[in-house]
Amino acid sequence: MIALDGPGSSGKSSVGAAVAAALGLRFFDSGLLYRALSWTAIARGVDPADGAALAALAPSVAVEAGVGGRLERVVVEGRDVSAAIRTPEVDRVVSAVARVPQVRAALLVRQRALVGRGGIVVAGRDIGTVVLPDADVKIWLDASTEVRAARRAEERGIDPGSVAGRTILADLLRRDGADGGRAIAPARPADDAVHVRTDGNTLEQTVAAVLAVVMPRLAAAPGGGAG
Ligand code: DC
């Protein structure tokens, strides 16, 4: 089990997917569950502060394996919402939804069920601290806010210097504060996490840096090494 935590747009999904592919492991981005629940709450007009109503939506949300076995297809009651959950509208409410205790409790169970007995890289904010405290390897991936905002803007085909690009930067700063400052399972590195900074790196360089941390630890983990 590899826990890959870090703030928004620190590269967790692309790095995590590449590391998982290199090691023949599954990859799961836990943020998809928080996004899917937020999308469902918006669609149903559920108040993001109503914990009981939000938790009641959790069974409607599923993450399924897409092509190549990567857990990336997000389905809400039969509808594929994989693209719809990556909009500014969802960005705006997801931190509020993610700090609700009943939501975290409901999604904790879902995440552990998806992980099962392991063989997986899991990206998130509290994977090393709360979801998988006994993970074999814990990584905290980070980059400056400007680099992360520019990456998110590029992903969405937006000029980072435009008004929309600056809105992305402001939103990332707000979400960093909300996710890191919440009472339950705040986004933070586990005490035993290895920090990897990605500023100025190509994807390949960051993947190599993460693999350099992971491989010796996996070899030393129970059941590791001999393959
Ligand atoms: O990684 P992301 O931007 O897709 O995550 C969306 C939101 O979900 C983020 O603002 C915080 C929340 N989240 C969380 O609280 N815990 C996780 N393990 C993953 C995501």
Describe this protein's structure.
This protein is an alpha/beta fold. The protein has one domain (2-211): 3-Layer(aba) Sandwich (Rossmann fold), CATH 3.40.50. The chain is 49% helix and 16% strand. The protein contains nine helices and eight strands. The chain has helices at residues 12-23, 31-44, 51-57, 88-98, 101-115, 127-131, 145-155, 163-181, 203-220; strands at residues 2-5, 26-29, 61-65, 71-76, 79-80, 120-124, 137-142, 194-197. The strands form two sheets. The protein has a five-stranded parallel sheet. Strands 3-4-5 form a three-stranded antiparallel sheet. The radius of gyration is 17 Å and the shape is globular. 41% of the residues are buried. 2'-deoxycytidine-5'-monophosphate binds next to helix 2, helix 4 and helix 8. Residues 8, 30-31, 34-35, 94-95, 98, 124-127, 175, 179 line the site of 2'-deoxycytidine-5'-monophosphate (DC).
Largest sheet: 5 strands, parallel
- Widest beta sheet: strand line-up: 2-6-1-7-8
Rg, Å, rounded: 17 Å
**Spatial separation of the terminal alpha carbons:** 15 Å
